[in-house]
Amino acid sequence: MVMKNTNIKNFDWIQDYPAAVTVCDTEGIIIAMNNRSIEQFKKRGGAGLIGTSLFDCHPEPANNIISRQLQTQQTNIYITERKSGRRLIQQVPWYKAGVFAGIVETVSPISGDIPIKERD
Predict the structure, then answer these.
(1) CATH number assigned to the domain comprising residue 64
(2) Residue 15 and residue 36: Cα distance in Å, rounded?
């Protein structure tokens, strides 16, 4: 995982994780991206996005959601649909030593129907 100014260690496994993983700090500054994320966002700068603001990468409605997430440490999960296919977006808070450290976004491709398995 490509990282900037962070002490995250032992994340080699995530480099080739099949979902795009992007990590930001509490100010919305991108501090890490895995290979899939770099590839997914190559038209916007790829690895060059590390050290830049998430707010520069999103339109205003999304920026409001990101700002609220950074303030409230809440999760945001949704599905997008484009001609290229459906994707599951998960934006969740991450913590370091129990202190809020930012947001991790994963973008996973979805193919076909996803079964729902009810468990008690």
Answers:
(1) 3.30.450.20
(2) 8
**What digits encode the pLDDT tens for the residues 101-111?**
999 999 999 88
Q: How confident is the model at residue 41 (pLDDT cuts 50, 70, 90)?
A: very high
The range of the structural domain enclosing residue 74 comes to 2-110
- Alpha helices, H only, the chain: 35-40, 60-72
The count of domains in the chain is 1
Give the CA distances from residue 12 to residues 17, 95, 108, in Å, rounded to whole numbers and listed in that order: 9, 19, 19
pLDDT of amino acid 111 = 82
Task: Quick: pLDDT tens for 42-81.
Answer: 999 999 999 999 999 888 888 999 999 999 999 999 999 9
Residue 118, domain member (yes or no): no
